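Entry 14. Ran structure prediction on the chain below.
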Amino acid sequence: MGFLAFFAAFSLKHDLFALGVAASMAVAGGFVGNIAGPAVRRALREEQMLATSLLITGSIVLVANLMPVNVSFALSSLAVATGAATGRLAFDSLLQRDGPDAARGRAFARFETRFQVAWVFGALVGIVPQNEKVGMLILAISLAVGGALYVAARRAASGRQMRTTLRPPAVDRALGRATAGFRQRMIERRRRRRARELEPPEG
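Output, structure tokens:
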């Protein structure tokens, strides 16, 4: 999104009408993605939504790159904004589903920071003067490669027992100590109860 926003602004700076159309399509794409996201979630899992939002968006950008520049920017803005909104909903849902309660807020803050850094990095690349067709091709390839890497990572991880790294090791150690202490207290309580039951009655 950062790359496309600044790349369109610099590439279409001499055609304000085309730039306005591209910006309008981006706004419409974000709206469509947020509206369609819950419906898509009923048909696909969060992991499938993420992969689909990357791969389909990359395919649309690649096809749009074969069209005139103005049309290419308009269709790409619509596709990228829709895919970004849908993918973001899937990611947030995935984090809420799998993220541990103790670290969920910190995880959201961490990933939001990474998203903002990625947006700024994309924007910096977008202001570099380059041919419009080449820039859109780079965007399409980046989306496709990202989707392919995500699918490959999911397949590689499917046969392993995954453990989240969102919870700090200190929390794991504290929970381990608390669990061990609780078990020890329960054992001692059962011993005392059994000892009382075995005591001979008085008198």
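The two ends are 86 Å apart (CA to CA). Will compare against last week's run tomorrow.
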